[in-house]
Amino acid sequence: MDHKFGGIWTQQKLNILAKYLLFYTTALKDQPFTLHYVDAFAGTGSHIPDEPENGQMQLISQDSLRGSVSTALEVDPGFHHYHFNDVKIEHIAELDKIKRDYQNKSILITQKDANLFVPEFCASLTNNDRAVLFLDPYSTQLDWATLKVITSTGKIDVWLLFPISVIVRMTPNEGDRIRPEWSQTLGRLLGTDEWEQALYKPIEKTLTADLFDDTANENESTQRLNVQELQNWVTKRLQELFPFVADPVLLRSNNRPLFSFYFLVSNPNKSAWKLAEKVVKHILRNER
Exposed e or buried b for every residue in 259-276, given b needs 16+ CB within 10 A? Predict the structure, then answer.
């Protein structure tokens, strides 16, 4: 089936992921660990761009339009086990086809809500297991509570695609225009009921307005943080959870911010993530 999504930014994301997976498996290939690659929103394993970006897609060959599943399976040296999950039955059927093409790989395919699948995988880890987890939700499907479970393992490196553009759409510039039905979704996604106080700030008034507007303090208006401020706030929230959080790459389409792409480490041992930090900074240097 055709899986339509993404564009140039999708390829940028997968290039970053591929470089890190190669580093990871190479660095740990002689260590006594069982290595797992986990994709909680695996899709079909390939994609067709949903939105051409100023004609640039014609510069990319069809062979490079693979998804995260194929990207991970082609990394050499590889992982000991691959875990691909998706909630859609039609995506599972496509993943089963890929599994048949890689019969030399240990591949487990599941059909679950990612917020059930990820905690179950985390609970299965032993002291000898290590994992890279790719979290690439289509929109607001990932719960903040799931991130808490991940960081508690101390054994998982995470690449997280955070939907910064969705936060922008669901939080209009004027705070009093927030749709009530979105409040619960935002609380689940951001992990706090205090997101409104965090994401909005008073509208700065000119000195003249302050002097002559007698009602300024009666109905003080607010405005949402800009995209960079929103990303900075999300980064600080993640830093409260994970021992290490790399500065994210802001992925764009036609110069519109879409996602913040984060690298997160759950291992609390500083020496365990210092090398990963160095490598990730090198990988991301030309991507910002």
Answer: bbbbbbbbbeeeebbeeb
CA dist., res. 199 & res. 175, Å (int): 9
Q: What is the CATH number of domain 8-194+225-284?
A: 3.40.50.150
Per-residue tens of pLDDT for the chain, all 288 residues: 444 445 687 889 999 999 999 999 999 999 999 999 999 999 997 655 555 544 444 433 344 457 899 999 999 999 999 999 999 999 999 999 999 999 999 999 999 999 999 999 999 999 999 999 999 998 899 999 999 999 999 999 999 999 999 998 888 877 666 777 788 899 999 999 888 888 888 876 655 555 555 554 444 577 888 999 999 999 999 999 999 999 999 999 888 899 999 999 999 999 888 889 999 999 998 776
pTM equals 0.86
Q: What is the C-alpha separation between 52 and 5, in angstroms, rounded?
A: 10
Domain limits, the chain: 8-194+225-284
